[in-house]
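Quick entry between incubations.
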Amino acid sequence: DGGITQSPKYLFRKEGQNVTLSCEQNLNHDAMYWYRQDPGQGLRLIYYSQIVNDFQKGDIAEGYSVSREKKESFPLTVTSAQKNPTAFYLCASTEGNYGYTFGSGTRLTVV
Amino acid sequence: QKEVEQNSGPLSVPEGAIASLNCTYSDRGSQSFFWYRQYSGKSPELIMFIYSNGDKEDGRFTAQLNKASQYVSLLIRDSQPSDSATYLCAVNPPGSARQLTFGSGTQLTVLP
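Done. Structure below.
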């Protein structure tokens, strides 16, 4: 079945540590996105990529980095520069103008 | 001013009633509009999209779009307890390719 796989489902980060969230899709979609959702809030765009080897900052890119070396993969690294990383992270992809397909999300907690 | 605004709720309706969820947007040239349902702790799932003024029906769901007034709404007929979730409105602003801007969501509770 086609879809988007995010891993891990839960992730714990220590102070000063970088962590990487995985996002893989087998939908053959060109565009991929990373959003952050805080409790009771909407989705805020971190980074997006329209094609391989190209990506752009979203509204809240500070403290995050991404890569797009393959069409299927769009990993997100939360760096130590992100001072408040505890949130629910959602990866999405799309083709055409039919809305996003979302992965199941990664819940990141600072310990 | 937020680009996409929704009443945060919570909105409570009795089982079997019609639930009405509203969304306004600021970019007049926006062309595509989406409604997502998000259960607690889960990721959003697409339930409706609408591009043209008027109504679009899919089962118990009806999306209504009025571009002149810059609002889009979602009606849920014969509401069921399983419809209890947060509903996110998303808009594709002009010049943003396929990128969506989301509202903060309306929490709906359907009471048995």
